[in-house]
Amino acid sequence: MSAPTLDRPAAGTPDEASLQERFDATIAAEHRIEPRDWMPEGYRKTLVRQIAQHAHSEIIGMQPEGDWLLAAPSLRRKAILLAKVQDEAGHGMYLYSAAETLGADRADLTDKLIEGRQKYSSIFNYPTLTYADVGVIGWLVDGAAICNQVPLCRSSYGPYARAMIRVCKEESFHQRQGYELLMTMMGGTDEQRAMVQDAVDRWWWPSLMMFGPPDDDSPNSAQSMAWGIKRHSNDELRQRFVDMTVPQAEFLGVTLPDPDLVWDEAAGRHRFGAIDWAEFKRVISGEGPMNAVRVARRRAARDDNAWVTEAAAAHAAKHAGGHAGSAA
Amino acid sequence: MSTDVTAEGGHGAVPTGPEVPVEPKASTARRDWPLYEVFVRGKRGLNHVHVGSLHAPDDEMAVHAARDVYTRRNEGVSIWVVRAADITASSPDEKDPMFAPSGDKVYRHPTFYDIPEDVPHM
Which SUPFAM superfamilies does the entry mention (chain A) (predicted)? Predict the structure, then answer.
């Protein structure tokens, strides 16, 4: 059982070397590290950063699709999109919950996001220009997220792995609703088909960037692999995503915007063109089309709704029965 | 480029450079909403199982929030919430002396007893 408030090792614990030894043995045996176990400071910090930024991505990720909630073309589509956006909020909550088992504070993590001191995935800094973007996000962006997230269900850190299992169960709905939406549009008018193709053209490359820099330029990976908090290399996952997606694009009848994309019979995989890492770098350092909007809206949600959280706390304090006071 | 970027976070690449702080710090926001642990009974006949945690101003709101966060797809028929501060836990260490006595009582397990193969229904 995890008791997040009790996550520090007790006083008088054995010396660090033997603790490290036991930690290493737990990792080597593919057992899970749990919140109150001793863990190296680097392991804890890496996990807090990774889980927090994943949580931030889920929360910021509500915005691009949330922009279409009022414009969805039917009640059916609106209900689906609302459920999807609500899931993203839920995913963020599972992840903040996991981060708190490591001693992080949820409100503090949100403050860091708003102050720009912690980041979220670059993919959410692109705008959703048409309704077809909703479908393409489900298909490509959530498809790429699934490739990244399924291996994380085996993360060596128990609370993160358990949160990811929950998330992955729901991502399948996200991808399928997107693909079905696109199939519907592709069966519609020429204008609708053009909208889908345009959305694919804009989202394809950013989706490939979601897997991060190439392996030979990804120095953090080795340590994360050794700790069991990263299971496959960036290029390995990117390749898996391309191989899964190409036949889906063919079935849909859209063209992926890469003239170098070919099936390599000998290698048994697709070859694809060079990714524009300069663009990736620009977007991640704050120069993407929507960076300022995303963070400003998150700030407004915190500040404009502060009176609600304060009122609820005041109400709870007034009616406190079994518990004296409300401070945890 | 990007010696400071990783894709570990599931939803895509994020910077991990030294400018990204990870140390918890005291903040005043929502400081007075306590942390609750959430337990869900998946269906009749099963125990409640720990599923995660959330912050809420009081017990009742915690149950409502737990429904929204942890049971959007019929994952449960019953929810318990308890303040994390009210949980008393043993040390999680497998080598904890608390669990040591059960380790050397092998005679408490059925496999301790050798019974000939041809004894039926045993």
Answer: Ferritin-like
Tell me the mean pLDDT per 10 residues along chain A, length 328.
46 76 94 92 94 96 96 96 96 96 93 93 94 97 95 96 94 94 98 98 97 84 90 94 98 98 96 95 88 95 93 90 48
Domain A26-305 falls in which CATH fold? Ferritin (1.20.1260)
Output DSSP code: residue A30: T
CB–CB of B39/B51 below 8 Å?
yes
Strands B14-15 and B78-83, bridge-based pairing: unpaired
The backbone region for A224, taken as left when phi is positive above 0, alpha when psi lies in -120 to 50, beta otherwise, is alpha
Q: What is the CA radius of gyration of chain B?
A: 23
Q: Indicate yes or no: CB of B1 within 8 angstroms of CB of A309.
A: no
Q: Which DSSP helix (H) or strand (E) runs through B5?
A: strand B5-6
Superfamily of the domain at B35-87:
Phenylacetic acid degradation B (3.10.20.520)
This prediction has a pTM of 0.86
Q: Do residue A309 and residue B53 have CB atoms under 8 angstroms apart?
A: no
CA distances from A237 to A54, A171, A221, B10, B99 (A): 17, 17, 13, 11, 42
ipTM score assigned to the predicted complex: 0.84
The domains of chain B are located at: 35-87
The span from the CA of B16 to the CA of B33, in Å, is 30
**Coil, helix or strand at residue A104:** coil
Residue A316 with chain B: CB contacts under 8 Å: 57-58, 61
In three-state secondary structure terms, B11 is coil
In chain B, residues with a C-beta closer than 8 Å to the C-beta of A31 are: none
Q: Which of residues 55-74 of A touch B (CB under 8 A)?
A: 57-58, 61
- Residue A264 forms beta bridges with which residues? A269
Which chain A residue has the Cα nearest residue B57? A313
Residue B83 CA: distances (Å) to CA of A103, A236, A326, B60 = 16, 42, 11, 12
**CA distances from residue A315 to A310, B33, B37, B57, B76 in whole angstroms, order as listed:** 9, 11, 21, 8, 28
Confidence class for position B3, pLDDT limits 50, 70, 90: very low
